[in-house]
Hints:
The protein is α+β, with helices and mostly antiparallel strands. The protein has helices spanning 20-29, 31-35, 39-43, 47-62, 108-123, 138-146, and strands at residues 4-5, 11-14, 67-73, 76-87, 92-99, 128-134, 150-161, 164-174. The protein is built from 6 helices and 8 strands. The protein is globular, with a radius of gyration of 15 Å.
Amino acid sequence: MFPHTLSNGMIVRIAVPSDAQALLNLVDRNRAYFESWMPFAGRTRTVEAARQIITQYEEKCRMGLGMYCGVWNEEELIAVVLIREIDLNIRCAELGYFIDRTYEGKGIIRETCQHFIHYLFRECLLNKIIICCSADNLRSQSVPIRLGFIREALLRQNFLVNGALVDSMTFGLLASEYTG
């Protein structure tokens, strides 16, 4: 599955602790934007904090319960797509993603998510994949919609961003609905 080359030549690969500086650089370049949507951005201010995120997902990956991958444009980390969690009891995974603002709208996240979806349904034999986005982040919501996910729920005030409780949208795709 990894590394994987996207149609534009960018490489998707599993993050390793030595990628911590690149992750911090990505967050720093987009901090104001990311902090509007994602709680982790406010907590990721040092290389050590970035390394801890990657290390946490290394353990999840070893256990088959998650994965943290970077999308690389040559030597620059420009996006992250992750399997936040896999629930093996109900065969369900949650995908997440974020991308440098200068690369938005180019189909990078959509194509990377397509690769993950294929992997999760065809190789891991999961039954369902969900994607959760801020209810105010319409760009992020367009990804699951374009991938054929169904809007399943508006969860009111269910996560904390910058000290405020915000709403999120949950989108789901079942293996029986997947045509890839």
